[in-house]
Amino acid sequence: LCAVRYTGVSGAPFRQEQHRRTVPPGEEETVTMTVTFAEYQPHVGDQDALKLTVAGAVQETGQVVAKELRVRLHTPELTLTLLAPAVVGQDTPIQVVFQNPLPDTLSGATLRMEGAGIACPKPFPL
């Protein structure tokens, strides 16, 4: 398991596991892996993905099979709601909602709104 930058460049693997299984004819075997935020967080940036590469070898035939899966990490969205009708020349109240999906408290964040008619956007510390 490794991080993949938005440019497609893979980072160094930060987790590796090896499993040996005996699979009877016509059967299938499932192996699961849970990756915690604390484990992958130091390796990823804002626009990165995780790349899981799985390879297996059939001992009796020497046949090798491999599969790769990229998991894009989604960033949370801002929800904007107009709280009153927008009228030219009057203040317009807007509600902005952001939900922190992380197990850690976020600090030092700033919300900045820009748009037509906003002459001097002011940062709003959160």
UniProtKB/TrEMBL annotation:
Residues in Transglutaminase C-terminal domain copies: 3-67
Pfam families, per the entry: Transglut_C
Source organism of this protein record: Calyptomena viridis (Lesser green broadbill)
InterPro entries per the UniProt record, alphabetical: Ig-like_fold (IPR013783), Transglutaminase (IPR050779), Transglutaminase_C (IPR008958), Transglutaminase_C_sf (IPR036238)
Top-rank taxon: Eukaryota
Keywords on record: Acyltransferase, Transferase
Protein known as: protein-glutamine gamma-glutamyltransferase
Top EC group: transferase
EC assignment: 2.3.2.13
Gene Ontology molecular function: any one: protein-glutamine gamma-glutamyltransferase activity
